[in-house]
From TrEMBL:
<protein>
    <recommendedName>
        <fullName>Cell wall galactomannoprotein</fullName>
    </recommendedName>
</protein>
<feature type="signal peptide">
    <location>
        <begin position="1"/>
        <end position="16"/>
    </location>
</feature>
<dbReference type="Pfam" id="PF12296">
    <property type="entry name" value="HsbA"/>
</dbReference>
<dbReference type="GO" id="GO:0005576">
    <property type="term" value="C:extracellular region"/>
</dbReference>
<keyword id="KW-0732">Signal</keyword>
<dbReference type="InterPro" id="IPR021054">
    <property type="entry name" value="Cell_wall_mannoprotein_1"/>
</dbReference>
């Protein structure tokens, strides 16, 4: 009988550690995604003309890696516990912090449309469009997974950020539509 009374005292620290790891892991993943976007942004600067095919291939590989990272992050968030008020706030601020670099990458991809066309015509621009669509889909899935774990007050404002990201993705994708 005394063991049953003491059990919560043994279990609570272990559970608290697991919950903290979820939040720490999510913030770490968002930081990793930010770093990947910064790398993509730098790679886009290297794509200046038809002689920059290697940089374009690097960008393609980075986009595919980012999609994989976003999918892994989505799966991880889906398997995590719901976030507390503080955790929701911490993660939401991390997500807001990623928007500037996302917009910078999308802006450069928009500006590089003619350069991508010089690199391989419609085959390359179609591929860029498909990569953008894939990134939008995985970003939306990650956002949906996060939103489902936030407290209600953060859930209520999350669609504003997601719709702004979707709008920027949409504008960029439209540049690559035939």
């Amino acid at each position: 009988m005394q063991f049953k009374t003491l059990l919560p005292f043994f279990v609570a620290p272990a559970i608290g550690h697991l919950l903290q790891r979820d939040v720490t892991g999510v913030v770490s993943t968002i930081s990793k995604i930010t770093d990947q976007l910064k790398t993509m942004n730098t790679t886009l600067d290297k794509i200046q003309g038809p002689n920059d095919a290697q940089a374009a291939v690097d960008f393609q590989n980075q986009a595919m890696e980012l999609q994989t990272e976003l999918q892994t992050a989505t799966d991880s968030v889906k398997n995590s516990t719901a976030f507390s008020d503080q955790d929701s706030s911490t993660i939401a601020y991390s997500v807001v912090g990623i928007t500037d670099v996302t917009y910078a990458v999308l802006g450069k991809v928009t500006a590089k449309r003619d350069v991508f066309d010089q690199l391989g015509g419609s085959a390359i621009t179609d591929f860029v469009r498909d990569e953008l669509q894939g990134l939008q889909n995985t970003t939306d899935a990650f956002a949906a997974a996060l939103t489902g774990k936030f407290v209600k007050t953060v859930q209520d404002v999350a669609p504003l950020l997601v719709s702004a990201l979707d709008f920027h993705f949409y504008q960029t994708i439209q540049v690559y539509v035939k």
